[in-house]
């Protein structure tokens, strides 16, 4: 679940439904709702939503189990995949740090899809385009890290990652 800036709480079900609760009413977007065909296909093929997070601009980001990310600005759905800079299309979890950067954990240890990659979406720059940074063994993850479990930022602003090789500190 994710609480959006407008107060709605968004939840995804394993049945493929997306819902928003506004404090008094549930609004459910089913696969047959007015969604983009690609998103309908992703939901219907069991590429379910695994994580929901919002950015500082109020956009909602839906991470899927195989179809990358979907950004929803309240009117339009935009599909983001490896072709756009995401390190992988199997998005397992997400985190927003206090600078507004979104972190997406990729791969699925339960399906034995080990990527070890972590993608960070920096806030929109002057060009209006997202800037992606991917972390792997070459730029910050421990050697042999095939799995990132979680991301957390402490009070001093340091990013911490749990991996199959232990805890990693990013400065």
The chain-level structural class is mainly beta
Mean pLDDT: 79
Radius of gyration: 16 Å
Along the chain, the helix and strand elements come as: EEEEHEEEEEEEEEEE
Low-confidence stretches: none
What's the overall geometry? globular
Discrete helix count: 1
β-strand number: 15
Strand order of the largest sheet: 1-2-3-4
What's the main sheet like?
4 strands, antiparallel
Distance between the termini: 28 Å
Instruction: Assign a percent range to the helix content.
Output: under 10%
Beta-strand share of residues:
35-45%
Please describe the structure with a list of short key phrases separated by commas or semicolons.
171 residues; mainly beta; four-stranded antiparallel β-sheet; 1 helix; 5% helix; 41% strand
Q: What's the helix and strand layout?
A:
Blueprint: E1 2-3, E2 9-12, E3 18-21, E4 26-29, H1 37-44, E5 49-54, E6 60-64, E7 69-72, E8 77-80, E9 91-96, E10 102-106, E11 118-122, E12 131-135, E13 148-153, E14 159-163, E15 166-170
Antiparallel strand pairs: 1-2, 2-3, 3-4, 5-6, 6-7, 7-8, 9-10, 10-11, 11-12, 13-14, 14-15
